Amino acid sequence: MTVTVERGGRVVEKHSGTRRPRRPRDSYALFLLPGVLAFLVVVVVPFLMNTGVSFTDWQGVGTPEWSGLANYRELMDDSEFWASFRHSLFMVVAMAAVPTAVGLVLAAALFDFVGKHFGTRTAAVLRACFYLPQVLPIAVAGIVWSWILAPENGSLNELLKAVGLEGFQQDWLGDPDFALYSVMGVMVWVQIGFPLVVFMSGLQRVDPQLYEAAELDGAGWWRRFWHITLPQIRPEIYVVLLWCTIAALKVFGAVYVLTKGGPGGETNVPSYFSFTTFFEKTQVGYGAAISTVLTVIILALALVGLKLQTRAEDAEEGLRV
Fold this sequence. Notes:
By secondary structure, this protein is mainly alpha-helical. It is 69% helix and 5% strand. InterPro entries: ABC_transporter_permease (IPR051393), MetI-like (IPR000515), MetI-like_sf (IPR035906).
């Protein structure tokens, strides 16, 4: 409250009441401290330790011997590593490209067709069914799929036999020509729920008047999907592609449970290659070099993806202004 007092022809203003104490600007940093400490302990310190081990020749016991860049020079000439990296590119297709494309169509269909004609509850139930593989532990899902794809008495081969297609029966996980594609199919099933949920969430913020105006102009479902849905949920598409690509590059559990990198290394990926080199071959320094290179690749990809996303969002904001 302000009080005005006249003193000798002068007007003096006095402020009464309690003054609110200022909150220190550094107080908000205290809330970040637990997360920062956890990040240092769980991510930064192990990565630095692993990087240090990658410059040594070590069998896991005794004293490590400094070898400099010897492990990295060997890695550049290792055909098995490059083969595993090529397999991880197939995993990117199975876990990022295909689920993103299929998830977009399914999300639009559930939101635009099922939700309007059968109710939002039906769409929510179907969404939960698609997302269920994401909730299942990968070990459980892998064991179930190993039963389904078993060469003898497997559900898939038995189904093919029941419908008279015995000629299509295969050793899905044991044949070098089919093993990688079988694992890719399993990963599509596992991964498709994540893009679907993200895209359906993004569709909630799209202005319904855009769809109504396009429908009045005679635009069909596909034209509305292409010209309205895709541009409006572009940020979600960037997030899903980046997230799923990183998950594909570091995939481990499915390969370990289904094939253990076989047959003949046809399903080997860098993360599993590093695991076997580290623990089974006890070439700890070399295994650490593999995981370090994979981490650097993932980090660089994440930074490039975030940069492209920021640039696209800035360009979109510029067009709006």
